Amino acid sequence: MTQSERWQMQYGQVMAFIATNHRRPSKYYAEERLLWHWLRRNIKLMSKGELPIERKEKFEALIALDEKYRRVNQFK
């Protein structure tokens, strides 16, 4: 399995997780921790500008989906 295939697989898993659970993976649940690490690592790479262009476009779509389900403070 190449790095690109592994990245695509992780991308699909995180996309499916966010679509079904309407939230980001949590670092506190063991079964979600690997997805959380992948998400955090790619956010860091994107902010540094080290994420390849083809991955960046897909990752921005994932972040847009995440923003759709972002929690809103009910007390504001």
Quick recap:
The protein is mostly helical and 76 residues long. It is built from three helices and no strands.
Helical amount:
over 70%
Mean pLDDT: 93
| Count of structural domains | 1
Poorly predicted regions: none
Gross geometry: globular
| Helix vs. strand class | mainly alpha
Alpha plus pi helix count: 3
Distance between the termini: 48 Å
SS elements, strand count = 0
Radius of gyration: 13 Å
Largest beta-sheet details: none
Quaternary class: single chain
Topology as H/E string?
HHH
What is the beta-strand fraction? Answer: under 5%
Topology:
Elements: H1 3-21, H2 30-48, H3 53-68
Helix pairs in contact: 1-3
Overview of this protein structure:
The chain has 76 residues and is an all-alpha fold. The chain has one domain. It is built from three helices and no strands. Helix 1 runs parallel beside helix 3. The longest helix has 19 residues, at 3-21.
Any key phrases for this structure?
mainly alpha, 0% strand, Helicase associated domain-containing protein
